[in-house]
Amino acid sequence: MSTAADPSARDQDDSPRRITAFHRDGLTFPVTDSGPLDGAPVLLLHGWPQDSRSWDAVAAALNRHGYRTFSPNMRGASPTAAPRWRWSYRLDELARDVLTMADAIGRPVHVVGHDWGAAAAWAAATDGQHRMRSLTALSVPHPTAFLRAMLTSRQALASWYMYVFQLPLLPELMVRTPLFRRMLERTGQPADVARRDGNRLRDRTIARGGLHWYRGMPFSAPGRLRARVTIPTLQIWSDGDTAVLATGPKLSSRYVDGPFRFEVLPGVSHWIPDEAPETVTRLLVEHFEANRSGDDAP
Fold it and tell me: Whose CA is closest to 72, among 17, 29, 16, 19?
């Protein structure tokens, strides 16, 4: 497995340089690297159907607090990292992508994920905890907590789209229409954000890549889903979320053996980083400061 960062990441005297991409097994993940070069590193993982731009406001605010942020386009979100087959999108592969990125950064990182980015972060935290300073999951709970919620609450009904996305071809056609962008707005996405994210899906490769996150779920290793997390964890959920209901996030604490904090954002939709960047930044800085070490710069 390749764990290389972009060759420009360090110069000849080994001083830090900007990273423009992460690389793994022939895939290239473009990344936005911003903030002070010596700042404590924060890896920001986006969800579907978004890309790294969903973190722009949060990243800028964290940079002002002295943190260095890395916002990559995840597997399937860019043409340079979009394998064709659904098997390549199982949770195990998403977790390995995250750990490859952490290795390339070269220091233990605070990992923050939203939506599918949160799912990838949870999975990475179960077997790469020495590479992670802390975990923050926005919206999506621990995988086992989500499965329990599917069986014991209305979550299975709220997740109807996951079943539709298992179909071949039809979902690719559906998400490329103006109707889908209007559906995003009805879930609480601001119109300009829905337009931004919807326009990406006009590219058939990008549309297929994101849908394969859902199609890869049945291939995830059961051990990965059940594994426990020991690093400090912050779970953020918003009570206006129509995709992820309250039961799962409330259950996440059962699968975390380290310090755990649960925060609810009232009146906020599923699209937390776009809709409430100031609140998210405040909670993240509190979480990072509570779980920093001597080599963290801020």
Answer: 29
What's the distance, CA 118 to chain centroid? 4
User: What's the order of all strands across the beta sheet hosting 109-114?
Assistant: 21-24, 27-34, 68-72, 41-45, 109-114, 132-138, 233-240, 260-269
Sequential pLDDT tens for the chain (298 residues): 444 454 444 444 567 899 999 999 999 999 999 999 999 999 999 999 999 999 999 999 999 999 999 999 999 999 999 999 999 999 999 999 999 999 999 999 999 999 999 999 999 998 777 899 999 999 999 999 999 999 999 999 999 999 999 999 999 999 999 999 999 999 999 999 999 999 999 999 999 999 999 999 988 877 777 789 999 999 999 999 999 999 999 999 999 999 999 999 999 999 999 999 999 999 999 999 998 875 665 6
Cα(248)–Cα(250) distance, integer angstroms:
5
Q: Please state the domain extents for the chain.
A: 21-290
The model's pTM: 0.94
Q: Is 240 exposed, middle or buried (0-12, 13-18, 19+ CB in 10 A)?
A: middle
| Number of other residues whose CB lies within 10 A of the CB of residue 178 | 9
Q: How far apart are CA 154 and CA 145, in angstroms?
A: 14
CATH of domain 21-290: 3.40.50.1820
- H helices within 159-276, ranges in order? 160-164, 170-175, 178-186, 191-200, 204-215, 222-226, 247-251, 272-275
Distance, in Å, from the CA atom of 285 to the CA atom of 283, rounded to the nearest integer, reads 6
Under 8 Å between Cβ of 274 and 54: yes
Which residue carries 């750990």 as its tokens?
Answer: 99
How many CA atoms, within 13 angstroms, populate the side-chain half-sphere of residue 107?
19
Separation between Cα atoms, residue 262 and residue 252, nearest integer Å: 9
Upper half-sphere CA count for residue 281 (Cβ side, 13 Å)? 19
